[in-house]
Amino acid sequence: MLEQRIQQHFIDSADLKYQAAQALGQPIASAVQAILACVTSGGKVLACGNGPSAAEAQQFAALCVAGFERDRPELAALALTADGTLLTAAAGSHDATPQFARQVRALGHAGDVLLVLSVGGNDANLLAATEAAHERDMTVVVLTGRTGGQLATKLRETDVLISVPHDRAARVREVHALVLNCLCDGVDTQLLGEQEIL
């Protein structure tokens, strides 16, 4: 019984990835172009998310700086989720909503990219970060699930929405991990040329 349940997880994950491949190809390519334009003009990517999405933001920033699958020059990227002192600075006021937005206003510049990761798209702190990015004339790339939630309604024409068409958080996060790999590979391919996928 347990083995069947485990196998079903693999099947469901594979099915969703197969279904999402065509729907997400164009927005992922647009996100690659936005990130590439940013980093090749001296800009940086700021990444943020909550809970497990915070860990994904940190992993993406690490892959930008340390490299993905090939040696290349470092790309400027920073996970806003990594500074515990700053994130808890407002703990006494019981309002952590502006913490990412403050970092975006302090670190972000025109031409930078804000990468926002959220399963539901309704997190108040991520909405505030998106608004702060727009104040700084930054491009926003939102990686979310379902229909994109409130984040989808905040985006501008120059922003990118990558919305995994599923309701289950675990499935959405699995596709998010694949999308982040696609972003890294896409940027590397544009910078270094094609390489056979092994």
Report the structural category.
alpha/beta
Overall morphology: globular
Tally of strands:
5
What's the number of helices? 7
Question: Fraction of residues in helices?
Answer: 55-70%
Mean pLDDT: 93
What gyration radius follows from the Cα positions, in whole Å? 17 Å
- In N-to-C order, the SSE pattern is HEHEHHEHEHEH
Give, in spatial order, the strands making up the sheet with the most strands: 2-1-3-4-5
As residue ranges, the low-confidence spans are: none
Q: Which sheet architecture does the biggest sheet show?
A: 5 strands, parallel
Give the N-to-C terminal Cα separation.
35 Å
Fraction of residues in β-strands = 5-15%
Q: Which keywords apply here?
A:
198 residues, alpha/beta, 7 helices, globular
Polypeptide structure, described:
- The protein has 198 residues and is α/β, with parallel strands linked by helices.
- Helix content is 55%, strand content 13%.
- It has seven helices and five strands.
- Strands 2-1-3-4-5 form a five-stranded parallel β-sheet, with helices on both faces.
- α4 (99-107) packs parallel to α5.
- The longest helix is centred in the N-terminal third of the chain and has 39 residues, at 2-40.
- The model has no long low-confidence stretch (mean pLDDT 93).
Layout of strands and helices, then pairs:
Blueprint: H1 2-40, E1 45-49, H2 52-66, E2 77-79, H3 84-87, H4 99-107, E3 113-117, H5 124-135, E4 139-145, H6 149-154, E5 160-164, H7 169-192
Summarize the structure.
Helix content is 55%, strand content 13%. With 198 residues, it is α/β, with parallel strands linked by helices.
